[in-house]
Write a structure and sequence with these properties.
Layout lengths: L1 H23 L2 H4 L12 H4 L4 H8 L5 E4 L6 H12 L2 E6 L5 H17 L4 E6 L6 H5 L2 H6 L3 E6 L3 H4 L2 H5 L2 E4 L5 H13 L8 E3 L3 H9 L3 H12 L6 E3 L1 H8 L11 H15 L3 H13 L4 H16 L6 H15 L4 H14 L5 H14 L61 H15 L8 H4 L11
Parallel strand pairs: 1-4, 1-5, 2-3, 3-4, 6-7
């Protein structure tokens, strides 16, 4: 009898302890979804018929790799799978855990499986930080399904996770949360009893600023919200000043759907065009701090690598494209460094708008109806009957001639001799200008109509991007 009372008392103490621990948990932890339908965003992973839903609903043993930016729900999805399938949830961080910890967790899971039949979800956060030996230690457990392994990574697993572990796991890619998703997260945290339970409200513009400074990271948004609400009386309204004090960060006056969006991106581009690297970096920082989509910034940099630098520095375009790839590969905050490098490169590069002027002029001629027949000797001669039509007859192969250039007509008669590309004398383009003149002399175009003055104006083509 005494033993039974003791067990009951211990159970009550355990329950009370768990309740107290839950109440003291961070807001982001308290608001963690319990079922897939509560997960915000990631419909491609949680929708009907998705592999993750099948795994959860049918309790199928399977190992997963979750790849996505911080705060998009990787830990949440692992926890939901464990909760829905009623499996033990064991979490390790690759930052602090070693092979010994991994093996201990696997041994315990194997014992539990053998004695009670209880299955275990082994969740390893930042699994990309494990070296090859540490990742290899997981293979027997994954192979024999002693655990359902779920690894979370912010880095491309194709480069950071060993092949044997990749081949034994289903890779699921998480997307950054959109503004609407973030708003749902905040509204739920404000109203739900697990969260703030209606104790505080947000003043005008505060939700928008929280979304901006969080940068698509739901965990960060909830952390900032909890900090701003700390110590406030019930019924208080959090204003922008209160939010700034809480997160120690000035609210950037920037509306991604309004005038500020267009003004800042315009000033950013014009600063690059004007070779002011410091001003361009300032506007880059403003956009990043305001939560601007880094892919949008990267796209504008790519455009202006050709529009404002062009052949004056042909390396500008590869640098801009590499920065855009870095944004996709590593994401913010690290990718801000790659963007900054590209901005500095473009701002300090010699400038030429000859490329955009050339394509504008060529398009203007086409739009004006100057699109004549392709010369017969340039037409495709590979299909049956082409020779009978004379296609390709008389074509001279440039590689058979000195300099790899031979005088023959390439353009239709309607635009013969038109000069679209007029190189500047800036940077590397000076070399292209010299070569362009030499080639035109060989082709017999050096004295033709439509020269430099004719191609100098865009003539109806699209205006330079802002």
């Amino acid at each position: 009898m005494a033993r039974a009372e003791s067990r009951q008392r211990d159970s009550l103490f355990d329950a009370a302890g768990e309740e107290a621990a839950d109440a003291a948990a961070p807001l982001a932890v308290r608001m963690r979804p319990l079922i897939l339908d509560e997960v915000v965003g990631q419909p491609q992973l949680t929708g009907d018929g998705s592999p993750l839903r099948k795994l959860a609903e049918h309790d199928a043993p399977m190992s997963l790799l979750l790849w996505g930016p911080p705060g998009t729900g990787k830990t949440t999805l692992a926890y939901v799978v464990s909760h829905v399938t009623r499996r033990r949830f064991v979490e390790l961080s690759a930052v602090s855990a070693g092979v010994k910890d991994v093996r201990a967790a696997i041994d315990t899971a194997r014992t539990e499986l053998g004695l009670t039949g209880a299955q275990t979800v082994l969740f390893i956060d930042e699994v990309h930080r494990f070296n090859k030996a540490q990742q290899d230690a997981l293979l027997p457990a994954v192979e024999n399904r002693w655990v359902s392994f779920i690894g979370a990574t912010t880095e491309n697993p194709s480069f950071s996770v060993v092949g044997p572990l990749m081949s034994r796991s289903l890779l699921l890619t998480l997307q950054p949360l959109g503004d609407d998703d973030m708003r749902v997260v905040l509204d739920r945290a404000l109203a739900d009893e697990r969260g703030l339970g209606g104790a505080v409200a947000l003043g005008e513009g505060v939700a928008e600023q929280l979304i901006r400074v969080a940068g698509g990271d739901a965990r960060r948004a909830l952390t900032y919200l909890e900090a701003a609400a700390l110590g406030l009386p019930r019924g208080a309204v959090i204003d922008l000043a209160g939010l700034e004090r809480a997160v120690d960060r000035a609210a950037v006056r920037y509306d991604r759907a309004g005038d500020q969006h267009y003004d800042v991106i315009s000033a950013f581009i014009k600063s690059i065009r004007g070779s002011d690297a410091d001003a361009a970096l300032h506007y880059l920082a403003r956009m990043i701090e305001a939560g601007e989509d880094p892919r949008f910034i990267a796209r504008r940099i790519i455009v202006h690598a050709s529009e404002d630098v062009g052949m004056a520095d042909p390396t500008a375009l590869p640098v801009a494209v590499a920065a855009a790839q870095a944004v996709e590969f590593v994401g913010l905050p690290e990718a801000r460094i790659n963007l900054a490098q590209a901005v500095i490169h473009l701002a300090l590069a010699p400038k030429s708008n000859a490329v955009v002027r050339a394509i504008n002029a060529a398009q203007a001629d086409v739009q004006a109806g100057r699109a004549g027949a392709v010369p017969v000797h340039l037409r495709d001669s590979s299909y049956r009957g082409a020779a009978r039509l004379g296609h390709g007859r008389g074509y001279q192969y440039p590689h058979d001639y000195p300099e790899g250039v031979v005088a023959q007509d390439y353009a239709p008669d309607t635009v013969a001799g038109r000069r679209y590309y007029e190189p500047s004398r800036h940077g590397a383009e000076a070399r292209y200008a010299e070569r362009s003149e030499r080639i035109r002399a060989i082709l017999g175009h050096d004295g033709d109509a439509g020269g430099a003055s004719g191609a100098a104006e865009p003539r109806g083509g699209p205006a330079p991007a802002e």
